[in-house]
Structure prediction request, 606 residues.
Amino acid sequence: MSAESKPPASSRERLPVAPKGKFEFDKTRLPNFADLMARLHFSTTDGRIWLDDQRMLLIHARSLGLLRREMIETLGFDVARGLMTRLGYHAGAYDAQLARKVRSKNTLQTMFLVGPQLHCLEGVGLSELVKLEFDVERGTHYGEFVWRTPVEDEEHIRYFSIGAEPACWMQIGYASGFSTEFMGRPILYREVECQAMGHSACRIIGKTVDEWGEGAAEDLRFIMPPPQTDLPDRPRQQLAVILPPEAACTRDLDPVGISPNFNTVLTMVRRVAPTQATVLFLGESGVGKEVFARTLHRLSSRAGKPFVALNCAAIPEHLVESELFGVERGAYTGATQNRLGRFERANGGTLFLDEIGTLTSIAQGKLLRVLQEGELERLGDTQTRRVDVRVIAATNVDLREEVKQGRFREDLFFRLNVFPILIPPLRERHEDIPLLMDHFLRKFNAKHGRSVTGFTQRAVDAMLTYRWPGNIRELENVVERGLILASEDGPIDTPQLFAGGERIGENLFTVDRKGRLVQRGANDLTATAKEPERPDIDGLSEQFLDLLAEEQNAQTCSLDEIETVLLKRAVARANGNVAAAARLLGITRAQMVYRLKSRGLKHDCE
Prediction:
């Protein structure tokens, strides 16, 4: 496998610390996945579906089948298979990141099984576990699953006859992408039986690429994109690099985001940065105009020169000119020495003028001259000085309307409006909210010396639901408030975030443990929690009670799951004392240690 097909180093660094030893899991039933169902939300206000912090799409299976058919008939089987396989591969990699977040406190086996369970939850088909054996530390992996009701086979058979090649391309890509991201090394799943080949079910086997040997080359070519030379002769566009959430922001001063609107703004910034054109940032207050301006400066040829910022609205009217253009000694009472203005301080670099619509008419006229001639006069001086400054302006008002009302010079507006960039409000950049939450959490943990672990699920729901009239600035303040109010080494909950009178007016729909779509109102997101969330106990209790009541459609209740929950709760009740936890369960300490080690659970005798 080439270096390009390997997961990035950041993926390997994000893996949880793996207990030593090999994991084997031979059960045909997957664990309860009420924790995953709780992460799926439907918003009727803006038409979005969310799986945790990832936007999802609900489409007709027949539409997918028609797309496959057209791709096969137009591009051929190999090209169509490659496109569908890579689509599934990236989806699997994203879900592997979700697995670490949702089940970070569970065993690695249970964490890995998020993949097959999300496959079911997302409607792709039912996965039955035959054998799973892996060791992250040693890099070994063997997985065997049977797929029932696979959507790809159903749609493939609708248009094509039974053949000699497997047809679950997207699903194979998903399994390979999930396992590769999870293990931190290339894992390849291959379909050895397929309904499209006449078998009663689909069977897949996954191993490391090295274990497959030369046989892996045939399937790997569908995971890797084809070389550019294989594409038809057509104008080629430069493709943007998609960064994982952790890599979307490398420094505190960098803009944070991954949404289409964010990428559009960033693309325009990158386009104009190498030029000397004047840039005008437009947008509501708090959307990050200065952050983008600093990014533009860092990407320009002036990066090694000064970046000087001035908020025009924060300067008293009678001092605006002196702040911009400087003061000559004796210009007015108290001017005892010469003082450089912002233009001279930024000479050779960039001057950022925020809220430029508040400038006085006199200052507007002098600013226009500097922009046109590159010359200025200090206040109280007659000497003309040349400056080489690139001006970046920003405003949260409609300058065209200001021109119509006579409050802003038309000639200055056209001089500033060379390259306007509109930054959308945060309510139109939903995908950026989770990244911003994580960014500010890390920032304020470091600033205040805290170690808050993250956010509860309902806190994430509330943050995605809130309209953010104050945009990123408000989100930053809310996260800092929540971090201060949250308990040490614990997550931030909704009441700690929205303690300043904010109102969440949107209703969400979520899936309950029985697969029903239920409404979740704003009160559910903001009410003070009476007890910590316990999805593992609650879900298991519901299954157990259904089984005792002889419910006809009761889910299978695993003795292994019950024992695991009891072990965890006993250790927690005994504050980590294994001997005391063993006494609570009526077993010996040695038996307790054996059971904890067999499940990879942490205990005080490691």
Summary: The chain has four domains: 3-16+23-33+61-225, 260-426, 430-526, 536-598. The CA atoms of residues 277 and 418 lie 7 Å apart. The radius of gyration is 30 Å. The first strand starts at residue 23 and ends at 25.
